[in-house]
Amino acid sequence: MAGTDRRRPRIAAGPAVVLVEPQLGENIGTAARAMLNCGLGDLRLVRPRDGWPNAKAVSAASGADAVVSAARLFDRTQDAIADLRHVYAATARDRHMVKRILTPRRAAAEIRRFAARGESCGIVFGPERTGLTNDDVALAETLITMPLNPAFSSLNLAQAVLIVGYEWFAAGDETPPEQLRTGLSRPATQEEYERFFGHFEEELELTGFLRNKEKRPSMKRNLRALFLRAQCTEQELRTLHGIVTSFAGPRRRPGKKRQAD
User: Fold this and answer.
1) Pairwise CA distance, residues 19 & 11, whole Å
2) Looking at the 3D structure of the chain, how many domains does it have?
3) Nearest-CA neighbor of 167 among 39, 29, 67, 8?
4) Same domain, yes or no: 37 and 119
5) How would you classify residue 131: left for phi > 0, otherwise alpha for psi between -120 and 50, otherwise beta?
6) Could you report the per-residue pLDDT of 85-107, keeping only the tens digit for each?
7) Is 21 strand, coil or helix?
8) SS3 assignment, position 227
């Protein structure tokens, strides 16, 4: 899905991503792409099977070259995480170890809190085919397990990195959870709503729709609630004004009876 704005600065911070014995260069590249999607820039590789650097990783990164070119190579997982204060291991299997297990969302929130205190964090991912060894898992203080369909919970490397990375990014994102995209027209003001309601209710009075005096107040409230839920734009309210005028036809004075045909 396209959506890259190259005029904007690239975010590249957050926890380190440690890939232990990744198999294909393409997998490293797609993981790097997932990282940059989520504003992560610290990629660490432990004994990649096909060697490093790897041209296929650059190709698969699809523009995340900065993450690939800055990747650091290590012989041991211990060396890759040596400078980190908090280490998480992403795993789908029960390792029969006494360790905390968090979802990516909970882990992301915790990592954000640690980062705010200046404490570095990293997330370790294992090989695509076998996952992390128990020795590598033992190096982490916390496990991250993704709640997925138990009948089919297998993920490729980039998918796993993307899920964890997205949760980290979303935990610090300030985008409102719901937005109104109005195009060229701005959202209507309360004054404009009141003007429309006045026009609409006047015509409903003239047509006799609001003839029941007892029900009239609740009917007006319900109609107002309907239009307010729609979150109309200024242009949409002007269109509704026109529709009401069109349906009403030539305006009649209250009490004046229509002549028989």
Assistant:
1) 20
2) 2
3) 39
4) yes
5) left
6) 999 999 877 777 889 999 999 99
7) coil
8) helix
Both 126 and 43 in one domain: the answer is: yes
Domain that holds residue 72: 16-172
**Is residue 194 domain-shared with residue 74, that is, in the same domain?**
no
Pairing state between β 16-20 and 43-46: parallel
- Judge residue 110's burial from the number of C-beta atoms within 10 Å of its C-beta, 0-12 exposed, 13-18 middle, 19 or more buried: middle
Q: Tens digit of pLDDT for each residue in 189-248? A: 999 999 999 999 999 999 899 999 999 999 999 999 999 999 899 999 999 999 999 988
In a domain, 9, yes or no: no
Sheet containing 16-20: order of strands: 72-74, 43-46, 16-20, 121-125, 86-90, 142-144, 100-102
Would you state the pLDDT for residue 5?
A: 55
On whether both 201 and 81 belong to a single domain, the answer is no
Taking only the tens place, the pLDDT of each residue in 119-136 is 999 999 999 888 899 999
The domain that contains 222 carries what CATH number? 1.10.8
- Beta-carbon contacts of 146 under 8 Å, excluding residues fewer than 6 positions away, are 90, 92, 103, 104, 153, 155, 160, 163, 164
Q: Decide if 178 is inside a domain.
A: no
For residues 28 and 127, state if they share a domain.
Answer: yes
Tokens describing residue 141: 């203080």
CB 127 within 8 A of CB 20: yes
